[in-house]
Amino acid sequence: MLFISKQGHVDHDRVRIRIFNAIEHGSMNVVHGIVVHQTGASTAESTFSSYQQKGANGAHFLLDQDGTIYQTASLTRVTYHVGNIKSRCLETLQCSPVEIAASREAFRQGKYKGLNRHEMTKSWPDRLPSNIDSIGIELVGMYRGEGKEQIYEDPTSEQNDSLKWLIAELIETLSIDKAEVYAHPAVSYKNPTEAKAAQW
Predict the structure, then answer these.
(1) 86: pLDDT confidence band, cut at 50, 70 and 90?
(2) Cβ-proximal residues to 98 (8 Å cutoff; 6+ apart), any chain
(3) Which of 97, 101, 107, 120 has the smallest C-beta neighbourhood within 10 Å, fewest atoms?
C-alpha cells in the first residue's frame, strides 16, 4: 500500500516526484478509475517540456522507457488526460431504448463533444471514468506513420513491469476496481493502438 501525503504525492522509493503545476486543473475528490496512455514522444524530457506550457494537458504519472516512474501531478488534482468520453452503455450494449435515443440526439447536436456532455450528466458508474475522477498514466512511446495509419510502439518490458506495480499499488491504496483500469482508446476516441500492448 502506498503512502500518499496531504499534497497528494506518493512517498515511495520507486516513485520520483516531479510535479508540473501547469497540468493540474482543479480538485479531484474521488478516484474511480485509471487510464493508461502513450505520449507520442520519444523521451520523458520532451513530455516534461510540454507540461511546462500554460494550460497544458498531462497525466498524474509518466513511465520512462527504462521503467522509471515519475509522479507529475498530485493525486488530489484533476488533469486533462481523457478527452471526450465514450458512452458506457453503448460500449457494453446495455443501453435502454430511451438512453439510445438520448445518446443519438446528443451526438447529432455535438458529435463527440455532445455525447461527452451527455455522459457527464451521469454519475459513475453509469458513465466511464473521466478527467474529474481518474488517474492518468503516460508511457513514453512514439508512433510510426501518419494520420489514421499511426501505430504506437510497444511499451518496453521495464515500462510494463513498472506499470503492473504502480497499478496494483494504486488499486489497493485507493480501492479502485481492477475492471476500471483502461487503455485510453477504451474510454475516449483515440488511436486504437495507443497503450494496446501495455500490461497490467
Answers:
(1) very high
(2) none
(3) 97
User: Rounded CA gap, 110 and 38, in Å?
Assistant: 27
Superfamily covering domain 11-83+128-187:
Peptidoglycan recognition protein-like (3.40.80.10)
| Domain edges within the chain | 11-83+128-187, 88-119
Non-local CB neighbours of 26 within 8 Å, separated by 6+ positions: 77, 78
Task: Tell me what the mean pLDDT of segment 49-71 comes to.
Answer: 96
Burial 29-68 (b: 16+ CB within 10 A, else e): eebbbbbbbbbbbeebeebbeebeeeebbbbbbbbbbebb
Residue type, 84: N
Q: Which is nearest to 166 in space by CA: 131, 193, 133, 139?
A: 139
> 151-185 pLDDT, tens per residue?
999 999 999 999 999 999 999 999 999 999 999 99
Q: Which of 63, 83, 65 is nearest to 167 (CA)?
A: 63
**Is pTM, for the whole model, over 0.85?**
yes
